[in-house]
Specification:
- The structure is a homotrimer of 366-residue chains.
- In chain A, 17% of the residues lie in helices and 27% in strands.
- Chain A is an alpha/beta fold and 366 residues long.
- Chain A folds into three domains: 107 residues, MurE/MurF, N-terminal domain (Udp-n-acetylmuramoylalanyl-d-glutamate--2,6- Diaminopimelate Ligase, Chain: A, domain 1); 212 residues, Hexapeptide repeat proteins (UDP N-Acetylglucosamine Acyltransferase, domain 1, 3 Solenoid); 25 residues.
- In chain A, the strands form six sheets. In chain A, strands 8-11-14-17-20-25-28-31-34-37-39-40 form a twelve-stranded mixed β-sheet. A ten-stranded parallel β-sheet of chain A has the order 9-12-15-18-21-26-29-32-35-38, with no helix packed on it. Chain A has a nine-stranded parallel β-sheet with strand order 10-13-16-19-24-27-30-33-36, with no helix packed on it.
- The first copy, chain A, is flat.
- The first copy, chain A, starts with a helix and ends with a helix.
- The relative contact order of chain A is 0.05.
Chain lengths: 366, 366, 366
């Protein structure tokens, strides 16, 4: 039954299983229950099935243990878990259930991309391209002249790579991604499906005849090590020089990065964020979903934008801002609280004004 | 002349034509004019050509009938249509012109995808994949190991499908869509071009060395029956368990759905909306364009978000909210009205304060 | 060394070089320095290498000339450039450094797409399609029945074109673009990677059984001459008739254009903007990033929306609006200034009210 060999547990375990004892050893956990139980998946308490491990990080989760179908759970050390039957199920006592979860996710994660090392016969690779022999190039990939692809890098089906692109080692370029000419990617860069790297920036000048003349964009995009980029995200090439994404920076889905933007290290950009041309984002900034920064503005190191924030002035290092236009976080919420009283305030002031007018008349000597 | 066989009427009739009499029967309409006229397209009054049918749902449209080139029109029963020449053109009297329009659109809609049943010789289908023989798999499609594709489902050119994906009957997966491993689609699901289903959720933890460690996302996306998803929309797989899109829900273009989101039945999400991780949207919610919901928040059944609304707290069932942060619809518009008076209000209060100070001085016993 | 023939200068010069004398002649510049110096790239002052030309448009840039490694610079005529060594480097004096930059970018721009004229053997072109012999059709392109592709038009790898699509002369359709059936593109249209033209509009009606019935969209998208469209942008086909993008209009990345929208000439739509169904945008409008317009609304000619503006009413020709809901630009900033005083204002009014109450008690005759 070939079909069954592929039957996926919905919760993601690609045929992996571990005894409770083995998991406990991996997590450094003490076990309350049979160490011989075999766990083959990971899920939330309410979704878990009878071969799944789950996790309990608070009293409210602990209270749901009895009703859960899970076979085992990683539990924060001192939590009381009512009704646990140690003959039938196992609790793994850990110092921190969240850290244990991250560890378990890694354990149960399916092996990466199915693309195998080597160049698929249906790929089109220019003879001048230099492909490491451990790289995996999928079906219907185009790799143009002069490209260099590093060791163990995976290029999934349908990816289009322009001329002279450089991609480092251990990268994953998912299906449908387009990388235009001369862009440079470091090591361990991951790009999710249908994103576009190195399209032209958005720049025109009036052509003097009522139309607009396109400004050529002859620069590139440079993406440093350990960057991850989501799906359907667009990063424009520089007018000249480089658009730069710093090491360890993480960019979500549907994000727009304009030409000549420079993002530092370890920044986090949530989905649907947009940076206009020549924006500078210093290290460790966090940009909430749907936030936007106007062209030529700078976010100081560690600045944090709440979701939907619109920045039209430079933001100081470490500042936390909210709203459009971006406002200091504390002031923003004070204003919001006051706004809810504004209709009443208008009425109060009208009354005070009337009162004043009357008292003016009262005291009128005439 | 093969070319002419393909000559498309701009208004979309792919070679279809109907007599006025046949259309009247279909719509249950009474005809004022020749039933033998032949209609071959559908268009708005001002754009219609001499073989098109149009529609008239109000007096202002009725007034434009004389100038329109349309051959026929569906007209609401009791409207007066000045200058109609029943020798030359036809009016089809219907109880409701909008409903008739929907019916006519369906009649004139071109036959679906041109992809023919069977597997295109340029597709790459893993031998362990189970493809119904009535399914149509286009050129340059990749279908990985263990997939199941249902009856009459159409997969257009350039689609990439990861391992163990299940797709039901009568689905349409448009060009360039990427569906990653183990995702599950029900029946009659339609996904428009270049959307991405099942990419990794956006989740990291500090790695203790100044960088960030990726959290594996081992869950899936599950899409129920009769869901439609627009172009360039991204739906992330769950960290574990499922991201769920409920039956009959409709999602527009460029929408972001985070990991572990659960959307109920019959919801409508307009374009550029974004839901962060683990959001719950109950049945029959309507989310306006560019609205956003912060992670772990819940929209109660039937809640309605106006365009550009930003939700950072749970929203009650049936509530209508506007703005960012989301505000009760009535209060929002009261605040907006008051805001327009705010600059004047500031001046008034300043004057009252000055007045008070003066009257304080006047009454100063000193 | 084939590899070196492809070695790209990061700053984009694809093997192009010019003497300072030749550049000066092209720009109409007077030279301060050796005309024989050979320039092979273009970059910003701080990024430029020893064979690059840069540009100096202000005193602050002039002050950095000494430290720059650039070989030459275009300089606004009357600027004083401290420390220039005319034996070693060259300044090209021009009336306007910005215009000179545009000229230089064009000079150094790499030659366009690498796709060669003719039909790639891995493309799938229906025999009824009419492809100009000077057009370049890349690998893995699908062109369905009845299409017409004009002279010198380039279709990059992985593009999917539905039946009866018409594309004019000198167009560039980048990798991964999807154009659905019957859409019509004029001349010199440029579409960046992974955009989608002609997907179904977002329209449903209640089906009377708790679900929703899809409205067929049988119209098309018509794109006029000299339009440029960014990456991952979606333009929906009309319900019937046409969605129209007027000549010379420029649309950025990740923009949503709904069904039946009509955009005039020379408009500029920045990234992540969204137009709902049946919106009309008259000529010369400018829409800032992330702006949105509700269905059926009209922007008068030359209207300007700031970034993140939300339009829910018609906007007059020439108006400048900001915010959501859209507000006259001057009033918006007056309100913003007042908002920053609002928390204080609430306290002041509370004090005035208390004061009034006390004085009311004082004067109480009882």
């Amino acid at each position: 039954m070939t079909q069954q060999a592929h039957d996926p547990a919905i919760n993601g375990a690609a045929g992996k299983s571990f005894t409770v004892g083995a998991l406990a050893q991996r997590l450094g956990a003490a076990v309350e229950g049979p160490e011989s139980l075999v766990v083959s998946g990971l899920n939330a308490l309410d979704l878990a099935g009878p071969t799944d491990i789950s996790f309990i990080g608070s009293d409210s989760y602990a209270a749901r243990w009895v009703e859960s179908k899970a076979l085992a759970a990683a539990v924060t050390q001192d939590l009381i878990v009512p009704g646990h039957d140690a003959n039938r199920r196992a609790l793994l006592r850990v110092p921190n259930a969240d850290l244990a979860l991250a560890e378990l996710l890694t354990l149960f994660a399916p092996v990466g991309s199915p693309v195998r090392p080597g160049i698929h016969p249906d790929a089109t690779v220019d003879p001048t391209a230099n492909i490491d022999e451990s790289a995996a190039i999928g079906a219907r990939v185009t790799i143009a002249a002069g490209c260099r692809i590093g060791a163990r890098t995976v290029i999934e089906p349908g990816v289009q790579i322009g001329s002279d692109v450089v991609i480092g080692d251990d990268c994953t370029i998912r299906a449908g991604v387009v990388i235009r000419e001369r862009c440079v990617l470091g090591h361990r860069v991951s790009i999710h499906p249908n994103s576009v790297i190195g399209s032209d920036g958005f720049g025109y000048r009036p052509d003097g005849r009522g139309g607009m003349q396109k400004l050529p964009h002859i620069g590139i995009v440079e993406i440093h090590d350990d960057v991850e980029i989501g799906s359907c995200t667009t990063i424009d090439r520089a007018k000249f020089g480089k658009t730069v994404i710093g090491a360890h920076t993480k960019i979500d889905n549907l994000v727009q990065i304009g030409h000549n933007v420079r993002i530092g290290r370890c920044c986090v950009l949530a989905s649907q964020t947009g940076l206009a041309g020549t924006v500078v984002v210093e290290d460790y900034c966090q940009l909430g979903a749907k936030s936007g920064v106007a062209d030529h503005r700078r976010l100081g190191a560690g600045a944090r934008l709440a979701a939907m924030t619109g920045v039209h002035k430079d933001i100081e290092a470490g500042a936390e801002v909210v709203g459009a236009p971006a406002t200091d976080r504390r002031l923003f919420w004070q204003i919001q609280a006051a706004l809810r009283k504004l209709p009443e305030l208008v009425r109060t002031v009208a009354r005070l004004e009337q009162q004043e007018r009357r008292s003016g008349e009262d005291s009128d000597p005439a």
